[in-house]
Design a protein that fits this description.
There is one protein chain. The strands form three sheets. The protein has a nine-stranded mixed beta sheet with strand order 6-5-4-3-2-1-13-14-15, covered by helices on one side. The protein has a six-stranded mixed beta sheet with strand order 7-8-9-10-11-12. The protein folds into two domains: 24-286, Ribonuclease Z/Hydroxyacylglutathione hydrolase-like (Metallo-beta-lactamase, Chain A, 4-Layer Sandwich); 316-346, no CATH class. The chain is globular, with a radius of gyration of 22 Å. The protein has helices at 2-15, 18-26, 62-71, 87-90, 93-99, 115-126, 184-193, 214-220, 240-248, 256-259, 316-322, and strands at 29-33, 42-45, 51-54, 76-82, 101-107, 131-132, 147-152, 166-171, 174-178, 200-202, 224-227, 252-255, 262-266, 270-275, 285-286, 327-328, 345-346. Helix 3 (62-71) packs across helix 5 (93-99) and helix 5 (93-99) runs parallel beside helix 6 (115-126). The termini are far apart. Mean pLDDT is 85; it is low at 7-25 and 289-307. By secondary structure, it is an alpha/beta fold. Helices cover 27% and strands 21% of the residues.
């Protein structure tokens, strides 16, 4: 009898530790790819309720990102990651840091002389937010039931894009690979060292053909591919070649310029994709091999070029009256002297 009582008591003690784990394990991970126009912003809601924002789009999208987070009930961001200092990734973070408490700020460490990057760093310092430049293979402790690992970062890179913090987030059987603006050379470096296979791939550099090599896509074999870019952008993003590569491995392609905000919800085994416009929500899918799936039958999106207005300006103040967001290198109004940070975009705010 005494042995039975002892056994039951021991069992009750063991079971007392299970609810917290079981509850967390049953909770869902939500990853949102926010429509910020020509830029990138990814919001992660971990199963334990913590939040992480990866990039914030251009400065013009700051209020959009803040509104999106507020609509999700966000009061605090446990982590904010600036993958690299280009304005189309960090501009919106100024509004974000002014609107929310931030627990940790992660930065590539790549020095950039733009006013936007300087303003952001000043804000981090003013608010006394813990600032870290992560190292390759560092883990981000967002949720004990997830693994979020840095697969690449390089503050010494010659190019800001190749300084990008690349993240792989894994929740049980479902994983997300966030490539920021990493080039094909960086992709090759990463896939030679690590397992890059992932359920969801946010393609590098907005679907540009400078990223998303055929070899890399074949290694990742994503069930879902996310292309984050703005309508009628002057860069020609995304590349139809990249879209074809994704179709060849059976990826379902989603585009922020077409589908608006894209949300992937998963319990760690199955996942569902929902969009705020365009395609309706996809049914719950089981993560696994994509080789058995038929290629997605989608035509490449052909962006219509923006109408050309005035092309000659004395300075950025005059140019912004006609082109409020500035102009890219391929635009007739672009002048190298107005591109002070040499990032291929003149007169951006």
């Amino acid at each position: 009898m005494k042995n039975t009582i002892r056994f039951i008591a021991s069992l009750l003690i063991m079971l007392s530790f299970l609810p917290a784990f079981s509850e967390a394990a049953m909770n869902e991970l939500k990853v949102h790819f926010i429509d910020v126009g020509q830029g990138e912003a990814v919001f992660i809601q971990a199963p334990n309720g913590k939040n992480m924002l990866v990039d914030g789009g251009p400065k013009t999208a700051g209020k959009t990102v803040v509104s999106f987070l507020q609509n999700k009930g966000v009061k605090k961001l446990d982590y904010v990651v600036a993958t690299h200092p280009d304005a189309d990734h960090i501009g919106g973070l100024v509004d974000v840091l002014n609107s929310f408490q931030v627990g940790h700020f992660l930065d590539s460490g790549k020095v950039h002389t733009t006013q936007t990057y300087y303003e952001l760093l000043q804000l981090v310092d003013k608010k006394n937010i813990p600032f870290t430049v992560p190292k390759e293979l560092d883990k981000i402790a967002l949720d004990p039931h997830m693994i979020i690992r840095v697969l690449h970062v390089n503050e010494q890179a010659d190019d800001t894009n190749d300084a990008s913090i690349v993240l792989k987030a894994t929740y049980n059987q479902v994983s997300f690979l966030l490539m920021a603006d990493a080039s094909a050379d960086i992709e090759e470096e990463i896939r030679s060292k690590y397992n890059v296979q992932a359920t969801v791939l946010e393609n590098g550099h907005h679907g540009s053909d400078t990223s998303s090599s055929a070899a890399f896509i074949s290694n990742v074999k994503p069930s879902v591919a996310i292309l984050s870019y703005g309508k009628n952008n002057t860069y020609g993003h995304p590349s139809s070649i990249v879209e074809k590569r994704l179709q060849n491995v059976g990826s379902k392609i989603y585009r922020t310029a077409v589908d608006c905000n894209i949300s992937v919800t998963t319990n760690g085994v199955k996942y569902a994709v929902a969009t705020s416009c365009g395609k309706s929500a996809s049914p719950l899918s089981t993560s696994g091999k994509t080789a058995d799936k038929a290629p997605a039958k989608q035509s490449p999106i052909q962006s219509k070029p923006a109408p050309i207005k005035q092309t000659s300006f004395k300075n950025c103040t005059e140019l912004r009256k006609v082109y409020p967001k500035g102009v890219g290198k391929s635009h007739p109004a672009y002048q190298a002297k107005m591109d002070r940070d040499k990032d291929g975009w003149a007169c951006e705010r």
